[in-house]
Write a structure and sequence with these properties.
Blueprint lengths: L1 E4 L5 E5 L11 H8 L3 E3 L7 H9 L3 E3 L14 H4 L3 H10 L3 H5 L5 H17 L2
Parallel strand pairs: 3-4
Antiparallel strand pairs: 1-2
């Protein structure tokens, strides 16, 4: 599952994909739908293609460079600390066993569980 959250850690948009699919594949489409101005992401999202797509849509990338990158791309380390909100959101969602272990057999039912979990996070504020 791929999830985009806002600055408060509230889910904005999500997409459910296969478990073996890399995180960066649906990222461009999700970010277009979210229309964000800044992306805080971990090293898994460090690719020139994604950075170009973000620049084209007017979104600044705060992504640390991978260890194997030949030329490091600088990022705002203070702003990157706010990424903990993303981890907290996933932690809150995974407290529900049905979400964490994906008991649902169909994609439609699991998407409903994820949508309910996201809605409950919005109701907390």
């Amino acid at each position: 599952m791929h999830l985009v959250v806002d600055a408060l850690g509230l889910p904005v948009v999500f997409e459910i994909t296969e478990g073996q699919r890399h995180d960066i594949q649906p990222a461009k489409e999700l970010l277009k739908r979210a229309q964000s101005r800044c992306l805080l992401a971990d090293k898994a999202y460090d690719s020139d293609d994604l950075r170009r797509a973000l620049t084209a849509q007017g979104c600044s990338a705060v992504i640390p460079s991978k260890v194997n990158r030949a030329q490091r791309v600088p990022h705002d380390e203070e702003l990157y600390k706010a990424r903990s909100e993303i981890e907290c959101t996933f932690s809150l969602l995974k407290q529900a066993r049905r979400f964490a272990t994906r008991y649902e057999k169909t994609l439609r039912n699991y998407a409903a569980v994820v949508a309910l979990g996201c809605a409950l996070l919005w109701l907390r504020i």
